[in-house]
Write a structure and sequence with these properties.
This protein is mainly β. Helices cover about 5% and strands about 55% of the residues. It contains six helices and 44 strands. The radius of gyration is 27 Å and the shape is globular. It has a 22-stranded antiparallel beta barrel. Strands 8-11-16-17-14-15 form a six-stranded mixed sheet, with no helix packed on it. Strands 3-2-5-6 form a four-stranded antiparallel sheet, with no helix packed on it.
């Protein structure tokens, strides 16, 4: 019986994999310039909005093998030429095309489209992934005129609607973004990736991202909202993927060197090498960044290295290796109370607080294309990292550090490995084109977390004191297995439906002990107690979703998607010793769904837009609220706050005003953009007194970023205005921060930024003014490091960059 079933399954598998192979044919062609018939190399040929992709060679030739019979929408586009679309029918025989593209203008003087399009969205099928019907944004870094040396998130992510950005430091060492009411802390509500693989401390158990790639080395940033839960992980925020620059294909070696100096002792050096030698291509960079910071005790040093090497085994097979090494040491000035911020936002009463991070990652990528209809991708990645925090952090922020007491020391060590495989198949059913994606993911984390008393000095000594009392010592293990599948069903040439499903198995455990000290009113230790515990939780579940994409006209795409989301409790939700916080030991995982419905432009140049309505339904939301402990002290307790619902509208629009007013210009460029989000949030259910009916924390009702960008030949300028209305920092909607300042209102603020750029031959000169009007504001109230308390954002800063590219 078993043999019969195995034979039957094997027969079905063979039939499926070979479906469409019979009655498949070749589509080939040649692309040339309309003016003089010159062959156009590196021209992208897209079938059915990216379902099939090919690039022309140096002679303008392209081909697609094993195409199923059917009707295809072909788009050809190349830099400096107008894109062209046509319908191609494959009906039982091979087909050859001659395509002629009309030039947009003289490439030596005209501003090309890449300099105008700063944001776009993902195609239906791209990079071995399916994005049809999903809310997505793509940031094209080279088209931005921003302060890249400081990783200024306010500018870099200005085209992504609804993001709430915490500004932890003026150097952009760490990225903290959230959206739609999600906690921005170290971007922990997104599945954060680099070149498609995980870069956070632990994707499920500790999803905080202490490492952020330098924007100077990034080519594109992909943001996929909550519907990414089926392919990339179950997080409510979605997926954030940094695409590092690809090796240059036409040079053996290319050097880019950037030097930046700025206010508050800021200095940044970035050097990259790139090239292709026969079948081997490479890209590598090194960055060093240092500065004194806007406030006292804010100095930092950071080192960042990345190396990528690829080998093209054959036309259909390639393998690549990525190595990332990052290390930084940062002085922590501590937080402020509301009154301290009002008196002097630049003050600091903490000179013994430090933070150190060491991050080492490796990833191997294997790609194989069986034919034009079948592709396979495999990624193996690992992390070896640690983060240490050290300092004096009492519950009362204004308390002066005596300078000779033992400091609180928290250590986290992360050892993780994961693998992800994807198989994509293009096939036909009833003469309709379909795309199937199936994948599997395995992940294992073995992480150590300890907390105790450190040294009494002022330096960055991350060793426990000889007479140390350990607050806790735990080993956290995390095992994860996931299977996922999505399929695009094209119904005619305008409508597609994409259902998807994901299976998750998660097993998390905590094994260790925590200590308790009993003191008298004078602070003398009366007794100590150590409690050992082992906690384990295994669960499995299935998530589903469906997306719809409809194109009523050539340049319009109406999309909708609903997908389930899930977020497991993290290690910080299990155990932490913090004088201003406590953790509920009975906390439960978070569940919910994300719904998007919107309309966006499709391959437009003059006017780019994306407007959408969303609902984020968030059950068992984990958060913090202000309460009292057994001694009557006010503390923040972390627990399942309740059932939260966020409803909103997100809009982005960019208009090329110069092309409208001067359609024939070859030297002028200019556009205006606006990004807005209107969000209503509410706790519709909660067992915590005074929470039901409240607004959800980290949700400004109105979030806007707007700006104008212009240029004349090689000169460019950009001005940006940012405005967020007030938001609460906890579920009780507390207004006054009190002595700890970890709760309370985050007032509204508005910021202006100015950036300039000029290119001359191999040189580029950039100038930036951050916070042009020198506003005093803050975006965050921290519960622990780098606080606790209010963390002021930087005042006005000036920066100058010189780049050489040879």
């Amino acid at each position: 019986m078993i043999k019969k079933y195995c034979f039957f399954l094997s027969f079905l598998l063979f039939t499926f994999l070979s479906s469409g192979v019979f009655a498949q044919h070749k589509l080939s062609g040649k692309v040339a310039a309309q003016a003089d018939s010159t062959e156009i190399g590196s021209c992208t040929i897209s079938l059915n909005n990216g379902t099939y992709l090919a690039n022309t060679d140096s002679l303008g030739r392209f081909h697609f093998r094993d195409l199923p019979d059917g009707t295809y929408q072909l788009t050809a586009y190349a830099i400096g030429y107008k894109s062209q679309q046509q319908t191609v029918v494959i009906d039982g025989k091979n087909k050859h095309l001659h395509i002629f593209l009309e030039a947009e203008g003289d490439p030596d003087t005209e501003i090309v489209i890449e300099d105008v399009v700063t944001a776009t969205h993902m195609k239906d099928v791209e990079d071995m992934s399916i994005y049809a019907g999903k809310k997505s944004e793509v940031i094209v870094v080279d088209s931005l005129v921003v302060n890249a040396a400081t990783n200024n998130a306010r500018q870099v992510y200005a085209r992504v609607p609804g993001l709430n950005i915490w500004e932890n430091d003026g150097a952009g060492i760490q990225l903290s973004i959230g959206g739609r009411g999600l906690d921005p802390n170290r971007t922990s509500n997104f599945n954060v990736r680099q070149n498609g693989y995980d870069i956070s401390a632990d994707a499920l158990g500790y999803p905080e991202s202490y490492y952020t790639p330098p924007i100077e080395g990034v080519e594109r940033i992909q943001v996929i909202r909550g519907a990414a839960s089926l392919q990339y992980g179950t997080q409510f925020g979605g997926m954030l993927n940094f695409m590092i620059r690809k090796p240059v294909a036409d040079k053996k070696i290319q050097l880019v060197a950037r030097q930046t100096v700025g206010s508050f002792g800021f200095y940044n050096t970035f050097t990259s090498l790139s090239g292709t030698i026969k079948k081997v291509s490479y890209y590598t960079y090194f960055q060093y960044k240092t500065g004194n910071g806007w406030r006292p005790n804010s100095d930092f040093d950071t080192y960042n290295y990345f190396g990528n090497i690829n080998y093209q085994i054959s036309k259909r097979t390639s393998i690549g290796l990525d190595i990332t090494v990052m290390s930084y040491l940062a002085h922590q000035p501590g937080g402020l109370t509301d009154q301290m911020f009002k008196d002097d936002p630049r003050q600091s009463n903490r000179e013994r607080n430090w933070f150190q991070v060491n991050w080492k990652m490796a990833a191997i990528t294997f790609n194989h294309k069986f034919n034009e209809s079948n592709e396979f991708n495999f990624r193996l990645f690992g992390l070896y990292a640690n983060r240490y925090s050290l300092g004096f952090r009492p519950n009362r922020v204004a308390t002066i550090d005596p300078g000779d007491t033992e400091r609180d020391l928290i250590k986290g060590d992360f050892r993780n490995i994961g693998a992800e495989a994807r198989y994509m198949k293009h096939y036909t059913l009833a003469d309709k084109a379909l795309v199937l994606l199936v994948g599997a993911r395995g992940y294992y984390g073995n992480n150590l977390s300890t907390q105790g008393m450190g040294s009494t000095g002022k330096d960055a000594d991350f060793n426990y004191a000889s007479d140390n009392f350990m607050n806790y010592d735990y080993t956290f293990k995390n095992k994860n297995l996931a299977l996922f599948a999505e399929n695009i069903f094209y119904i005619g040439n305008r409508l597609s439906i994409t259902p998807g499903v994901r299976y998750e198995y998660i097993n998390t455990s905590a094994d260790g002990y925590y200590g308790t000290q009993y003191k008298d009113l004078a602070g003398n230790i009366l007794a100590t107690d150590t409690t050992f515990e082992y906690r384990s939780s295994a669960r499995q579940f299935i998530l589903g979703g469906i997306g719809i994409s409809y194109k009523p006209m050539k340049k319009i795409n109406v999309y909708g998607n609903i997908s389930q989301n899930y977020r497991s409790i993290t290690y910080s939700d299990m155990r932490i010793s913090n004088p201003s916080s406590s953790v509920d030991p009975n906390m439960q995982d978070e569940r919910g769904f994300t719904l998007d419905l919107g309309m966006r432009s499709e391959e437009t140049k003059l006017f780019i837009y994306d407007g959408s309505f969303f609902i984020l339904n968030y059950a068992n939301r984990i958060g913090e609220f202000q309460t009292k402990d057994a001694t009557g002290r006010f503390i923040r307790e972390r627990t399942n706050i309740g059932h939260a619902v966020m409803i909103g509208v997100e809009c982005y629009a960019e208009y090329d005003v110069v092309k409208l007013m001067l359609p024939k210009t070859k030297v002028w460029s200019g556009s205006v953009f606006m990004n807005t989000a209107f969000i209503k949030s509410e706790y519709v259910k909660s067992i915590i007194p005074g929470v039901q009916g409240n607004e959800v924390e980290f949700v400004p009702k109105f979030n806007m970023k707007a700006g104008v960008r212009g240029g004349y030949k090689k000169f460019k300028a950009s001005f940006q205005y940012t405005h967020l209305t007030q938001q609460y920092s906890d579920a009780t909607n507390a207004v006054d921060g009190g002595a700890s300042a970890v709760v309370g209102l985050i007032p509204s603020y508005h910021i202006m930024d100015l950036s300039l750029s000029y290119e001359y031959k191999i040189f580029r000169l950039e100038a930036n003014i951050n916070n042009l009007t020198n506003q005093m504001y803050f975006t965050r109230r921290a519960t622990g490091y780098p606080g606790p308390g209010i963390l002021p954002s930087d005042g006005r800063g000036y920066y100058v960059t010189l780049q050489v590219k040879i």
